[in-house]
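User: For a reading group we're discussing how well predicted structures match intuition. Take Yippee domain-containing protein. Before you show the prediction, I'll give you the sequence so everyone sees exactly what went in.
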Amino acid sequence: MGFSYRTYLESSSSIYGCAKCNTHLSTAELVISKQFQGQHGQAFLLETVVNINLGKAEDREMTTGLHRVKAYSDENKYKEGKFILEKKLLVDLTPKVRVVEREIM
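Assistant: Thanks. Here is the predicted 3D structure of Yippee domain-containing protein, as structure tokens, for the group to look at:
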């Protein structure tokens, strides 16, 4: 059925969206790390994301180890409550401004 409404983001930096449906998800300003690995490759660790439904917490084996909503060690505490978006599944939705120059006579 889909969302009854969506949150549209405005930002002076990149706006990241779903590659399938172009729904706004987050902005470049909210990126904590671009050097992160998801299940299918390079990913971004983000402070917050919009237009999502949270599922049940589960353990996942990733390249950087076993992860869950709760950190297993103190060095991973910064990841608690954050979001991972895989780069492969994102598209840059930043509006493109086209400037046309005209000669005035």
